[in-house]
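Hi everyone, sorry if this is the wrong subforum. Our group has a chain we'd like a structural model of before ordering constructs, and none of us has done structure prediction before. Sequence below.
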Amino acid sequence: MFGANKKDMSMLSAGKSLTVCGYEIKKMPIGAYIRALDKIQDLPGELMEKCFPGMSVDDILSDLSKLDKSAVANLVTRAIAVVPEYALGVLAELTGIPVERLFEDESIGVDGLARILDAWLEVNRLGEFLALMKGLPRKLAENLKIQIPGYKGSSSAPLASA
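Answer:
Right subforum, don't worry. Here is the predicted structure as tokens:
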């Protein structure tokens, strides 16, 4: 694919898993990754709903303009309560570990969460994926013989117009 050799491609598709805190962390399907991204995109709206229940955007902006020290403390407390719930929900979506277990399993703890996330990153080779994706525009330009501003080596052919 786009000049990658077969050895590189087999490395990308090699499946493996790691066991952390008694849970098997496996290579995840693309669908789970997309669902996790959807959950992350919902966070701002959920955060606003939890911090300002039942309020319109105008009401929220009005309240924000009048914040005092006690209101800021209350707002921060509500926000802090929402973020971990979402973070664990995303981690549950990525790893397949039920969110209740992430919250309640004594064998996990804070250090276990870090090890689980580290194992997920290793098994799913996210660093390698991002590195490959970084070079994709240049490779596409070279293969399609188009000029992309800022990429050396792309052809000087004009861009196709719509």
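For your construct planning: Residues 6-124 form one domain. The first strand starts at residue 17 and ends at 20.
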